[in-house]
Every structure is written in structure tokens, then in C-alpha cells.
Design brief:
14 helices, globular, 2 domains, binds nicotinamide-adenine-dinucleotide, alpha/beta, Rossmann fold, 367 residues
Length: 367
């Protein structure tokens, strides 16, 4: 049964990690390493059942393969989950035990932070393995990825404007931004720097007030955000907000934001395409975070990270080209772009560069 599931999702390897003393129950899923070692975060969550944990780690690791491939990284996709409650089950020994399992994979999987995990937990993991990113800046880590994600989202937006309107004049358009958290507030700053009109909502009233007072945004109610007459709808909070209930209300002709899993279903993505709404695929737009941590592998450099964010513009533009070329919705085009890259690199054979080994030399001379 488990092999059937793994085969259906195309996974290479799934590791179940157990330590009674440490109270560790973890699963590491390596989906695809054609492009490089599998990079993906560690999530800690009180899963109701082991099956829920398996489903989650398989879904998330597969998603990382696509995200890393579209981002142009030389990294494959993987993910890990620890079954437990982050508010009460954390300990040094738990994360060190997890770190040992990561280390045992010899670099096939590189871990990072995800839901329920913070930089202190990563410190413990880092004591047991070097195959970890998202450690504190004093250890060469990259720190908070949010400003990079926001800047990357701006690049995705510019690609969408170029595609839809033939210009990248961000300030000329209006925006409905849902969520003014770490990424949303930075993104709003970038929009306002260019003089754009920004409507904002958040369940955190203080965050909204800051956007109004300090950035000159217009506040709207939580549910009103879908009815705002804006050119771009930018989900920067939750997933699944483009759904059957909201699709008729959203007037924007571009959807581009940092939130994960913005489309409730594939059918919604098909319908957006039918209506001529340009959807900039979330995992291509919000790849700034993973690009940023990926640079820790070779030694982190902030300037290089900022330059790398610019590639999101070209990646999103390429997705739109594929969508047009193949007559498919953009969410499918993103997947196709990932699959094409993995397919072609997977088949790549380097030309033979010669062999200077003495025992071949005679043969090469035909002796
Ligand atoms: P965050 O928690 O700092 O911000 C989310 C904000 O959304 C909060 O201010 C919260 O109050 C608000 N919010 C929650 N529910 C809401 C609702 N129903 N309506 C309006 N606002 C609501 O998180 P973040 O780091 O800014 O991430 C935002 C989104 O971007 C998430 O979906 C995250 O998965 C995604 N993302 C973030 C990064 C990153 O670098 N931080 C990278 C990739 C993807």
C-alpha cells in the first residue's frame, strides 16, 4: 500500500525516523533529485493520524520539486515532518535526533524551516548535520526571507503586467492586498514606493493601521477585499482564497501574490484562464524564500540573493509563454515548465571529456 502511494506520487525515497528516547516520530520524503539534492522545509504539526502526516509530507515534497525546478535552482524536492505539537513537544534532543537522521542521508536531503519550526530549533539540528539551511545569521544563515519574497513577488507582478498590458508601470495600477504580515507589508512598501494605489485588509487591525498611517494605504474589511475595484488581487495571507465563492466577486484581471496554494481547485484555475484573468502561479512568484536559503549551501551573499530574485520575472514570463504556446492555463504551464526542465536535465549526458588514465592510452592510440 505504501509503495503504491509512493509510486503514484513519483517519490524516490521515504524515510521513517524513530527515536523512543527523543520522542521522535518523523518522516523525510525525497521526491526527486534529478536536479540536485532535495531541499525542503521541516514542518512540526500535531497530525491526527500517521496517514495524515504521510499524505502531507508526500504532497509538500512533490510541491518542492516543482517549485525548485521552476525557480531554476539546481535542487530537487523534499520535505520532512515531525509528528508533535510545537507548543509543547519541542526539546533539544528531539531536534538533535532529527538532525542525525538528516545527516544519515549524506546530503540527499537538505532541511529548512517550515510551519511550527523556528531558528532556535534549527540550531539543534545544525549541531548534528551540516545539511541544514535557515540557521541563524551568526552561522552564515540568511535570516528572514520575507523581504526577498516580497521583492520576488514584485518581479512576478511586473511579468504579469507586461503580459497583460505590455508595460511594467507598477505605479499606474491599483492593488487589493490581502494580508499585511511579513511578506505583505514589505510588498505593499514596494508598491507604494512606485506610487500605486493600495487597498489592504488583515485580521490584525494594528497591521492595517500601520499600512494606512505609514504607507498611505486604504483599509477595507476582511470580506470586502474581494469586491474592491482594483487591477490586481494580491493574496498574501491564506491559501484557497480564489474559489467558487470569490471568483465572481474578484474584479481584478491579474492575480499575483505571495500566499501558497491560492487556487482552491484546478477547476478555478481553468475558469480564470477562460475569463482572461492572468494568474501568476503562486509557487513561481513566491520562490524568493527558497532561493534565499538555497544560497546558504555555497555561502550566503545578500547581494547575490537580491539579484537572484530578478530571475522570478523571467520564470513567470516563461510560464505565460508556455501557457500561450500550449493553450493551457498558467497553473498547468508552471507544472509543465518544471517537468520539461527535469526531463531535459535528467536526460542530459555530458560529452566525454577524454580520459588520461595510462591503461587506456595505448588502446586510444589503436595499439
Ligand atoms: P505572516 O503570518 O507574517 O502574515 C500573514 C498575515 O495574514 C498576518 O498578518 C495575518 O494576520 C494575516 N491573515 C491571516 N488570515 C487572514 C485573513 N483571513 N484575512 C486577511 N488577513 C489574514 O506570513 P508571511 O510570512 O507574510 O506569509 C504570507 C503568505 O506567503 C503565506 O501564505 C506564506 O505561506 C507565503 N509565503 C511566505 C514566504 C516568506 O518568505 N515568508 C515565502 C513563500 C510563501
Amino acid at each position: 500500500m505504501i509503495f503504491e502511494t509512493i509510486a503514484n506520487t513519483g517519490h524516490e525515497e521515504v524515510v521513517f525516523c524513530h527515536s523512543k528516547d527523543a520522542g521522535l516520530k518523523a518522516i523525510i520524503a525525497i521526491h526527486n533529485t534529478v536536479l540536485g539534492p532535495a531541499l525542503g522545509g521541516l514542518r512540526m504539526w500535531p497530525y491526527k493520524s500517521e496517514q495524515d502526516a504521510i499524505n502531507d509530507v508526500l504532497r509538500l515534497s512533490r510541491g518542492m520539486t516543482y517549485k525548485n525546478a521552476v525557480a531554476g535552482l539546481n535542487l530537487g524536492g523534499g520535505k520532512a515532518v515531525i509528528i508533535g505539537d510545537p507548543s509543547k513537544d519541542k526539546s533539544e534532543v528531539l531536534f538533535r535526533a532529527f538532525g542525525r537522521f538528516v545527516n544519515s542521508l549524506n546530503g540527499r536531503y537538505i532541511t529548512a524551516e517550515d510551519v511550527g519550526i523556528d531558528v532556535n530549533d534549527m540550531e539543534h539540528v545544525f549541531r548534528e548535520t551540516e545539511y541544514v539551511t535557515g540557521v541563524h545569521q551568526v552561522h552564515g544563515g540568511s535570516g528572514d526571507p520575507s523581504p526577498f519574497t516580497a521583492y520576488g513577488t514584485l518581479q512576478g507582478l511586473m511579468a504579469a503586467l507586461q503580459f497583460k498590458h505590455g508595460n511594467e508601470d507598477v505605479g499606474k495600477y491599483s492593488y487589493a492586498v490581502q494580508g499585511a504580515g511579513h511578506v505583505g507589508s514589505e510588498f505593499i512598501k514596494l508598491l507604494r514606493e512606485q506610487g500605486a494605489k493600495v487597498f489592504v485588509t488583515d485580521i490584525n487591525k494594528d497591521a492595517v493601521q500601520r499600512c494606512v498611517d505609514e504607507l498611505g494605504c486604504e483599509a477595507v474589511g476582511l470580506d470586502e477585499i474581494y469586491d474592491v475595484d482594483a487591477d490586481v488581487y494580491s493574496p498574501c495571507a491564506l491559501g484557497g482564497t480564489v474559489n467558487e465563492q470569490t471568483i465572481d466577486r474578484i474584479k481584478a484581471k491579474i492575480i499575483c501574490g505571495a500566499a501558497n496554494n491560492q487556487l482552491a481547485t484546478d477547476a478555478i484555475g481553468d475558469e480564470l484562464s477562460r475569463r482572461g484573468v492572468v494568474y501568476a502561479p503562486d509557487y513561481a512568484v513566491n520562490a524568493g524564500g527558497v532561493m534565499n536559503v538555497s544560497l546558504e549551501i555555497d555561502g550566503y551573499n545578500r547581494e547575490r540573493a537580491m539579484r537572484m530574485m530578478r530571475t522570478i520575472y523571467y520564470n513567470v514570463g516563461r510560464i505565460f509563454e508556455i501557457a500561450q504556446r500550449d493553450g493551457i492555463p498558467t497553473y498547468k504551464a508552471a507544472d509543465r515548465m518544471a517537468e520539461e526542465r527535469i526531463g531535459i536535465i535528467g536526460k542530459m549526458r555530458l560529452p566525454h571529456m577524454g580520459n588520461g588514465a595510462p591503461r587506456f592510452q595505448g588502446r586510444m592510440r589503436g595499439q
